[in-house]
Structure formats: structure tokens, C-alpha cells
Amino acid sequence: MSETRSSFLKRGNLLLVAVVTLGIVIPGVARRFLGEAGYNDLGMIVFILGYAGMIFIVWYGWIRPLDISGPEP
């Protein structure tokens, strides 16, 4: 059981979890505060840009380098 836990808690996996969490939490909190201040449209833009930025970082850092091509014929 400790092998499964230690294999998940590697630096890359923890960084991925942190990026995804912060990419959702920070824009969400900013959107909430801007919405309460009367800037609902600006809050939506901040959330969309923050979420899209997080998706781009995850794609660029973790998904793009993967070699997912099929076998050579």
C-alpha cells in the first residue's frame, strides 16, 4: 500500500495538483469578490482567463510532451 501512495506523491504529481487547484480557486475567489463589488462581467472575464490559463499550463507542461502516437506500420 505504501508503494501506491509514494508513487502518487511525486513532485510532478503534486505540482500538477497545485496548478489545477490554484487555477480554479484563485480565479473563482477573484470572480466572487469582483461580482460582489458590482463588476460581474469583469469577474467572469477574470475567471475565464484564469481557467484558460490553467488549462494551457497543464497542456503545455504535462500533456504536450507525451508521446501518444500509435505503433509504426
Task: Give the key terms.
73 residues, mainly alpha, 3 helices, 78% helix
What does this structure look like?
With 73 residues, the chain is mostly helical. It has a domain at 22-61. Helices cover 78% and strands 0% of the residues. The protein has 3 helices and no strands. It has helices at residues 2-8, 11-36, 40-63. The longest helix has 26 residues, at 11-36. The N and C termini lie far apart (40 Å). The model has no long low-confidence stretch (mean pLDDT 87).
Q: What is the terminal separation in angstroms? A: 40 Å
Q: Residue share in helices?
A: over 70%
| Cα radius of gyration in angstroms | 17 Å
Q: How many strands, which pairing sense, and closed or not: the largest β-sheet?
A: none
Tell me the series of helices and strands, N- to C-terminal.
HHH
Question: What structural category characterises the helix and strand content?
Answer: mainly alpha
Kindly estimate the percentage of residues that lie in beta strands according to DSSP: under 5%
Q: Which outline best applies? A: elongated
Mean pLDDT: 87
Number of DSSP helical runs? 3
- Total number of β-strand segments? 0
Oligomer: single chain
Low-confidence stretches: none
